[in-house]
């Protein structure tokens, strides 16, 4: 039997997520209006969250913002992520060698979630941040993960995608995308050619776990002026070597004809 939800918990997390999405302090009445709550109800939730140390309040105008206690919670979750611990040293090496930003992402539902990021010295400003979600069809990490999933799982995921056209280069047609994934499997890596953000080009390669399943993907990202088409094959080769090492540390042993053997 399906358990009923606790609406108080649902409302509390609605407030937390709303505050997380705001770039500035938020007034009580604004927050209550945006969430469809009575101000007195919103205040009780905020007062409790403040008492617990998760929300802070400006004394001069009574506006609210999340505290860095959430950063501590997030860091503890990420620290327990074995994939992140294994991949991070390789990502630091890739960033140093390639002088570009590296990302680590995993699949969650029909989206990818960035769980690590190593910026180069001259960090390229991108939408991606640790903990944020991204599209499968427009990112190199998303495409490289889905391309090497088992066929049945891949088709189930793609059947629910909207294929939103984020730029003029985004592949927004299901048929074209299926063909594109076949090319990725043959090549062993995925490219985001200004498909997610204008001016940004990325190359992505999957990593595999001890069971031979796709555990996530690592990408190298930068401006199109430095991530030139001529440079991509060499970057992809360097990235494949790194992902092979990460996969090995995760216990992956390639077998003939396996997805991991084709990618790495």
What are the defining features of this structure?
Beta-Lactamase; 264 residues; Arc Repressor Mutant, subunit A; alpha+beta; elongated; 10 helices; 6-stranded antiparallel beta sheet
What does this structure look like?
- By secondary structure, this protein is of the alpha+beta class.
- The protein has helices at residues 7-21, 28-35, 39-51, 69-79, 82-98, 140-147, 151-159, 174-187, 232-249, 259-263, and strands spanning 55-57, 64-66, 101-108, 111-118, 133-134, 190-193, 200-208, 214-223.
- The strands form two sheets. Strands 5-4-3-8-7-6 form a six-stranded antiparallel β-sheet, with helices on both faces. A two-stranded antiparallel ribbon has the order 1-2.
- A hairpin with a 6-residue loop joins strand 1 and strand 2.
- The model has no long low-confidence stretch (mean pLDDT 91).
User: Using DSSP, what is the number of strands?
Assistant: 8
What is the CA-CA span between the terminal residues?
A: 44 Å
Question: Mean pLDDT across all residues, rounded?
Answer: 91
CATH domain class name of the largest domain: Alpha Beta
CATH architecture of the largest domain: 2-Layer Sandwich
Number of helices: 10
CATH H level of the largest domain: which superfamily? GAF domain
CATH topology of the largest domain: Beta-Lactamase
Quaternary structure state of the chains depicted: single chain
